[in-house]
Every structure is written in C-alpha cells, then in structure tokens.
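Today's session is about reading a structure prediction critically. Students often jump straight to the picture, but the first step is always the sequence itself: look for stretches that repeat, for charged clusters, for runs of hydrophobic residues. Only then move on to the predicted structure, which in these notes is written as discrete structure tokens rather than atom positions. Here is the chain we will use throughout the hour.
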Amino acid sequence: MGGWRDNLVNSPEDIGAILRECRRIAVLGIKTEAQRDRPAFYVPEYMARAGYDIVPVPVYSPDATEILGRPVYRRLADVPRPVDMVNVFRLSHDIPPHVPDILSSLPKVVWIQTGIRNDAVAEALARAGIKVVQDR
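Below is the predicted structure for this chain, in token form.
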C-alpha cells in the first residue's frame, strides 16, 4: 500500500493512538438531551465524561444553542481551531454533502461511527491527508 491509503485506519494500535492523541472532537450530527437514548447523544456524552472536549455540531435541532453544556455550532467551518477529530453521526448517503465543511475544519482525523461506511468519502478525506476510521 502506501500514499493516501495509509490514512485509512483499521488496526487496533492505530485506533488506540488516535484515542490518546485526539482531545478536541467536533461531533457532526450530535443529538440533543431530548434524544439521550440515541448513540449520537450518549456516545459524545460518554466521551465528554471521559475528558474529551466535545464540540456539538447538530444537523437538526435548529433551536438548540447548547448541548452537553457546550455551545452549538451549525457548521464545522465555524468551530474555532484546532479540531483534532470530526466524529460523524450521519447515514452513509448523507455524508458527501458535508465533505467540504469537514475539509474546512482541518481535522487530523474523521471517525465515521459504527455501522456507517462511505468509501468514496473516506478516500477523498484520506487523499486530503486526514486519517479516517470507518464503521467503528
């Protein structure tokens, strides 16, 4: 392999390194407290309790101004840098329109959640020098 494919992360060791190194995580598609039974809420909530700095970027909930006690941003481009990781809670077919916004935030890593894959998006991000974890 080599080149951009090196940015497609699969090994437990590389995933562990990402979890140790990434501290500030923008969560694209985060849900509100009203939807606390959804993974897009309880996973970021757990991450916040574990000490990660969570930046909420909901796709819906236009009236939400705060999630998990943190201010909401409507676009990744508006999140103050640095952004270590963008954690994506979107269906695979809903991710492509977010790619320009993801790229604008200059994350080191994009993590696409369990059960979600979009190989074309992963390749585009990897070619831009971003490490990508999918379906984890």
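Discussion point for the tutorial: The mean pLDDT is 96.
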